[in-house]
Write a structure and sequence with these properties.
heterodimer; A: about 350 residues; Rossmann fold; 2 domains; 6-stranded parallel sheet; 10 helices; 14 strands; B: about 350 residues; mainly alpha; ABC transporter involved in vitamin B12 uptake, BtuC; 2 strands; disordered N terminus
Chain lengths: ~350, ~350
């Protein structure tokens, strides 16, 4: 029954989009840059609707748009696919929205549509997942590799008292981003935490069973192990599940990158003290303000431009039209209740 | 004719026992399994002798046990089911969905739901294989992708997390009775029941006959299509049950749950001495193969073997068991020819 309603809703949404597109075509004198009213129109286009992560980020965007008195809208496909977003981009351009905030399903497949929208006067901001730099005005980057590496080292150092043996539980051995983070964590440990010894790096292949086995082997192999860092969401939840049912619970610290929904039970039962990820709500909030700054002509998206994003403060555009949200966000017992993604 | 087949039975008891022991493929894997556990425990006593180690040694193979038993029943009919990983993923996700809808659902209901979901998938495979007479390898390769695609479409990037499963269900994942994990007990009951059926029941023996020579089985009037269909349904149902096990043990389910495990199930069956072209092998063998495969993966990191070599070790084990099978079968053929020539 549920499936049927969902399908129906998808069909209805499609039909609506189609008619909107037709309507926009019919009155093209309304199209083109700028809007009739003063309110800045901001449309969020996530990878797909119904995804808790994007629901959180778009809620942040809505909050920002309300704050500066604009008009907020959210559209998107049911499922993520390389070109599923094209029709929505075309529609937004035809409607002449001031700013389109996109999390791109594909770095190149959307380029033609996005550039057509920009020519029509819509400012394009990507967040979470970027397109090629020439297809958008700004990219709001959730975190840098340096920031991700640093926050994980800091958390483990705090949790084990800045000394003792730690190990890393990674995803696949050939995962580029994982290896980049691991190298930076090693450098950071050597530079700032001489009393912490990294004794092992194991690979759970983002598979529950393998991550389980590797966690168990780490505990058996290193009786003095004080902590485990898992910079992968599958790894950290599998390791947390294993630790929570083993005698090492509470004795071996676990931290890394995870989502609040995945880790909530393990934070509550004390297996995990703190873990990190960026805050998608802030990400959406900043993206909306960036869109407004572009639409108002305050910035053009070139390096060195600065703009203010409400409570988050002032941001500077970096290389390649990229704005960095900041340090990763730490989730712990005190704030995990505020998040649902 | 009949004299020649009877002749080997006239041998002395001692030679017969010796040959039976040699023929017992299961013994070879049991020895390898025992050796691995022994060496790993010598190196780190906690591998078996700590509370966690003892539990993990018994608990870790429970999921693959179910898959291997189901796979064995299909393989013995000269078929194969590659869709069990996708079936497991779907069942694990359905389990999560049931608990999200009603956290107080009795555990028995999700077990039945898992079995049911799996049986439906198995029936689909069985129908396609028996009605269209297309090789099972192709059919189940197809359903593997179709089902995984459908699951990914439905689930997207959503995950079932620990918070979605009620505590009593999560507890089941590690619960022990007299230090034996409950999931392992269930899996062993399944092994015993299916093993007994295959060994003694008429339907079970017919599965061997069909796999041994499908044409002869047809000519003889065996209900081949019905039996093969039944084998696929059983395999699917057990894969569905394995999905519930997976949800209980890992307290998570996402679109990728169980992907790749189908090959482990086939590997366990082959290592367990079940002929990939059907007709011979035992459920016990497949079960011990599953135990061996999982235990090796747990033991190798402790033995200090680099993870990059672990796949190679498993591969060598598969090739080794095939070679062993071949050697044993050649030796047996020689013995039979010898017996015939003497008669």
């Amino acid at each position: 029954m549920k499936i049927h309603t969902k399908r129906f809703a998808a069909g209805a949404a499609l039909a609506m989009v189609a008619s909107l597109g037709l309507a926009a075509c019919g009155s093209d004198d309304n199209g083109g840059g700028g809007s009739d009213s003063d309110a800045t129109t901001v449309t969020f286009l996530p990878k797909n609707l119904g995804n808790p992560y994007f629901e959180t980020s778009d809620a942040g965007g809505e909050k920002a748009v309300k704050e500066f008195g604009g008009t907020y809208d959210e559209v998107g496909p049911d499922t993520a696919g390389p070109d599923a977003q094209v029709t929505y981009i075309d529609t937004a351009a035809a409607q002449g929205v001031n700013a389109l905030i996109v999390s791109a399903n594909d770095p190149t497949a959307l380029c033609d549509s996005l550039n057509a929208a920009r020519e029509a006067g819509t400012k394009v901001v990507t967040f979470d997942s970027d397109t090629d730099p020439e297809c958008r005005d700004l990219f709001i980057n959730q975190a840098t590799a340096e920031g991700i590496a640093k926050v994980q080292v800091e958390m483990i150092a705090e949790q084990i008292g800045d000394e003792g043996e730690v190990a890393i539980l990674s995803a696949a051995a050939n995962a580029t981003n994982q290896n980049a983070w691991i190298d930076m964590m090693k450098a950071e440990l050597e530079a700032s935490h001489p009393n912490i010894e990294l004794v092992d790096t194991v690979y759970g292949d983002d598979d529950d069973q393998t991550s389980f086995d590797k966690t168990a082997a780490l505990l058996a192999d290193h009786p003095n192990l004080k902590g485990i860092i898992s910079p992968t969401t599958v790894g950290i939840s599998a390791a947390a599940r294993y630790l929570s049912t083993s005698s090492a619970k509470g004795k071996v610290a676990l931290t890394g990158l995870g989502t609040p929904n995945q880790m909530r039970d393990y934070i509550e039962d004390g297996t995990v003290t703190e873990f990190a990820l960026w805050n998608p709500e802030d990400l959406g909030f900043l993206s909306a303000y960036a869109g407004k700054a572009l639409a108002d002509g305050d910035i053009t998206g070139k390096e060195g431009d600065t703009f203010t994003a409400g409570d988050l403060g002032e941001f500077t555009v970096g290389e390649n039209g990229t704005v960095l949200l900041g340090d990763p966000y730490r989730f712990n017992k005190d704030n995990i209740g505020d998040f649902d993604f | 004719m009949s004299a020649s087949t009877l002749a080997p039975l006239a041998e002395s008891t001692a030679t017969r026992v010796a040959r039976n022991l040699l023929r017992s493929r299961e013994l070879a894997i049991v020895i390898v399994l025992a050796l691995i556990v022994l060496v790993a425990t010598t190196r780190r006593s906690s591998f078996l002798l700590s509370a966690d180690g003892w539990r993990d040694t018994l608990l870790a193979p429970s999921i693959l046990l179910l898959l291997a038993v189901g796979q064995m029943v299909v393989v013995v009919t000269r078929n194969v089911d590659l869709s069990v990983g996708s079936t497991l993923g779907i069942a694990a996700y359905v389990t999560g969905k049931i608990f999200v809808a009603n956290p107080d659902t009795p555990v028995i209901v999700v077990f039945l739901a898992g079995l049911g979901v799996g049986a439906v998938v198995g029936a689909l495979n069985g129908l396609l294989v028996t009605v269209f007479r297309v090789p099972a390898l192709v059919i189940t390769l197809g359903t593997m992708y179709v089902l995984r695609g459908a699951l990914t479409h439905e689930v997207g990037s959503e995950r079932m997390n620990a918070q979605d499963f009620p505590a009593h269900f999560e507890k089941l994942g590690t619960q022990q009775v007299l230090t034996i994990p409950v999931l392992t007990i269930i899996a062993l009951v399944v092994v015993a029941a299916v093993g007994y059926y295959l060994h003694t029941a008429r339907g079970g023996r017919e599965l061997y006959a069909i796999g041994s020579d499908p044409d002869a089985a047809d000519l003889y009037g065996l209900p081949s299509a019905r039996r093969v269909f039944g084998a696929f349904v059983l395999c699917g149902a057990l894969a569905g049950l394995a999905g519930v096990f997976s949800a209980a043990r890992y307290a998570t389910a996402f679109s990728g749950t169980g992907s790749g495990i189908e090959l482990q199930a086939v590997a366990a069956v082959v290592i367990g001495g079940v002929a990939i072209f059907g007709g011979s092998g035992t459920v016990w063998g497949a079960a011990i193969g599953a135990f061996l495969l999982v235990t090796i993966n747990r033991a190798l990191p402790i033995l200090g073997i680099s993870e990059f070599w672990q796949g190679a070790v498993v591969g060598a084990l598969i090739i080794g068991s095939i070679v062993l099978d071949r050697v044993l079968s050649i030796r047996r053929t020689h013995k039979l020819i010898e017996a015939r020539d003497h008669a």
